[in-house]
Write a structure and sequence with these properties.
The chain is α/β, with parallel strands linked by helices. The chain contains eleven helices and 21 strands. The protein has helices at about 10-25, 35-40, 45-55, 65-75, 90-95, 105-120, 145-150, 175-190, 205-210, 345-350, 355-360, and strands spanning about 5-10, 30-35, 60, 80, 100, 125-130, 140, 155-160, 200-205, 220, 245-250, 250-255, 260, 270, 275-280, 295-300, 300-305, 315, 330-335, 340, 365-370. The model has no long low-confidence stretch (mean pLDDT about 95). Bound molecules: pyridoxal-5'-phosphate. The site of pyridoxal-5'-phosphate (PLP) has 13 residues, from helix 9 and strand 10.
Length: about 375
């Protein structure tokens, strides 16, 4: 089947390189968990999972049970943490497939113990401590008692204790340090009770980069192996580069006159005769809904988006790019010759963050994996 002329390209060789660089950068005794939620932020969960395991990931993390089950269905047997809270039905499913749940309430402990009793096996669990995000987890003040109870619960094995930062990737680290202090208090109380776990972990990518004091035994990385930084100000590691590009082709060119309008809502009026390229991609593919805002790369140059983009199409002004023609490749996110439109630039069009854009490219854009060692290079 011919490829739709709009696609997401994932560079597997650069993914290898990114993992290699991260592994070289991190302290040798620091383990890492690869966070694969939302299809590895739209990059393809299985590809990222397999590569992370080649580079020594000790643990994988998902957020929905479905995500974790598709890793198991692919034959992956390493421990998988299902983050967040589970419903009672989900708990049984997690136990059946050997997925590690977080037990943050006495209710969940009891429910899991019932399942364990029926199965006569020990169930691995972890506890999340809420140190200030006010999302999942047992409040830090209540955590020592809860952790001791989990550690002593028949049928359960406490493998890890985690927390999560509210803000780790901005310059102001004061709240992160306060959260770290709360977590350390909990961990101290825990070892005071004689409870020891294999994995104490608090850092996402921002924490990994900027808060070595919070590394503990393991860090949880989602965005960094994809070659994208969580913010504009966190530490940079030379050589990391985004593995995702989003591309399309010019499918039509309109020669218009001064005074002509472009796009729905008549948001753009040409002041001179212009050449307008039509791209078969729009907000229905995950591009922000814009009006006379944003650029794409054509022949290695920036071409401005004119008018408002539609669900399935957008128009760009190529009056200055004389050599551009129908079927030319166009980059919406990524590099072309010496120019680049990075994901942060696309995110700024909707006042959002890189995570939102990466994960927001819809599945109607086919994923094309290039530079796979096992298959011919396709670009
Ligand atoms: C998503 C997530 C991560 C990974 O964050 P990155 O910034 O992508 O590294 C880590 N921990 C938790 C709890 C998460 O939800």
């Amino acid at each position: 089947m011919p490829l739709r002329p709009a696609w997401v390209e994932i560079d597997l060789k650069q993914l290898d390189r990114n993992f290699q660089i991260i592994v070289r950068d991190k302290p040798a005794n620091l383990d890492f968990m690869c966070v694969l939620k939302d299809d590895a932020y739209g990059h393809g969960m299985l590809q990222v999972a397999r590569t992370s395991l080649q580079f020594g990931a000790k643990y994988l993390a998902a957020v929905t049970v479905d995500e974790a089950l598709s890793l198991r269905a692919d034959g992956i047997t390493v421990p998988i943490l299902v983050m967040g809270e589970r419903t009672p039905d989900e708990l049984a499913q997690c136990v059946e497939h050997n997925l590690t749940c977080l037990v943050n309430t006495a209710r969940t402990v009891n429910a899991l113990q019932k399942i364990a009793a029926g199965l006569e096996k020990k169930i691995p669990v972890q506890v999340e401590v809420d140190t200030g995000l006010s999302r999942y987890g047992v409040r830090w003040t209540d955590a020592p008692t809860h952790i001791a109870a989990v550690a002593n619960a028949q049928g359960l094995t406490l493998e890890g204790v985690m927390s999560h930062f509210a803000m780790s990737d901005e310059l102001d680290k004061s709240f992160a340090m306060q959260q770290l202090g709360r977590f350390v208090t909990v961990l101290d109380a825990m070892s005071g009770e004689g409870v020891h776990v294999n994995y104490r972990h608090m850092c996402n990518t921002g924490g990994f980069l900027d808060l070595p004091a919070a590394h503990f035994d393991m860090v949880r990385m989602g965005i960094l192996p994809l070659g994208v930084y969580p913010s504009q100000v966190c530490r940079r590691i030379p050589g990391l580069s985004p593995i995702m590009s989003v591309k399309t082709r010019i499918v039509a060119i309109q020669e218009i006159e001064a005074g002509d309008y472009v796009g729905y809502g008549m948001r753009y009026q040409a002041t001179t005769p212009s050449r307008i390229a039509v791209l078969p991609v729009g907000y229905g593919d995950g591009y922000p809904r814009v009006r006379n805002q944003g650029f794409v790369l054509v022949c290695g140059r920036r071409a401005p988006i004119v008018g408002g983009n539609a669900m399935d199409a957008m128009m760009v002004d190529i009056s200055d790019i004389l050599q551009a023609q129908v079927m030319d490749e166009v980059v919406l996110q990524g590099k072309q010759k010496d120019e680049e439109i990075d994901v942060h630039e696309v995110a700024s069009l909707k006042k959002s963050v890189s995570y939102d854009i990466l994960a927001g490219w819809r599945s109607r854009l086919p994923r094309v994996y290039v530079n796979n060692q096992d298959t011919p290079v396709n670009d």
